[in-house]
Amino acid sequence: MGETPTQQAGTIPDLPSGLAEPEAPPHWVWIALRPDLFGLPPWAVTGIYLAEIFLLVLLFQLIWRVLSLAKPRPSAPSLPAPDEEATAALATLRNRASAPVRELAILLSSIVRRFAEREYGIALTTQTQEEFSALLSICPDALPQRFAADLRAFLDACDQAKFKPGANQEEFKQQLWNQATRLIQKWPKPVHQDESP
To answer: What is the pLDDT of residues 26-83, one digit of tens each?
Structure first.
């Protein structure tokens, strides 16, 4: 009845030529890349850019942490036990047994001081004997009593070797060797076991 042959039942008629279909909104990727092209207010454009920078920084930090965790870290070399280190140092020093008694006293004193510092946790390598004696008078429990007495005697002997070695230097050297060896090997730090509650 008045229908054109092109019109079929159930079909949508064509839009008039003056009306165009509305454009699809821009994809969010384009808005993120160039928000200034879509008529957004300046504060929104600035906010988008700042948010993108913040997200990029977070992404780079995440990548850096993942890569650093994946990279095997070199393990720190373990130090030998204090008595083992001191014994090895004494063995090395044996090659210089012919050194003058003053030089030998300085080297032996350094080895024993480092041993006591590592074994008992007191700063002995940077202290003079007077400072060490003052420390023991203030904190008598810083070292075992017998060890502290033997250490004082050894340091006194080293000072005597440095400033007034006497005539029989070879005998003095042997005395220093014996004292240093006894301090390192005879007085290991006692092992404190945890007390059960």
So the answer is: 555 555 556 555 666 777 777 777 888 888 899 989 888 888 777 666 666 677 888 8
What are the domain boundaries of the chain? 28-70, 82-186
How many C-beta neighbours within 10 Å does residue 155 have? 21
Contact 108, 121 (CB under 8 A): no
| Alpha carbons 168 and 101: distance in angstroms, whole number | 10
C-beta atoms surrounding 77 within 10 Å: 6
Q: Which residues contact 107 (CB under 8 A, 6 or more apart)?
A: 93, 96, 99
With both helix axes pointing from N to C terminus, report the angle between 101-120 and 82-93 in degrees, rounded to the nearest 10.
170
The C-alpha atoms of residue 29 and residue 25 are separated, in whole angstroms, by 12
Number of H helices, E strands in the chain: 7, 0
Q: What is the DSSP string of 117-177?
A: HHHH----TT--HHHHHHHHHH-GGGS-HHHHHHHHHHHHHHHHHHH---S-HHHHHHHHH
Alpha carbons 105 and 175: distance in angstroms, whole number: 10
In 10 A of CB 107, how many CB atoms? 19
Task: Please say whether the beta carbons of 160 and 176 come within 8 A.
Answer: no
pLDDT tens figures, 150-184: 888 998 888 888 877 666 778 888 888 889 989 88
pTM of this structure: 0.55
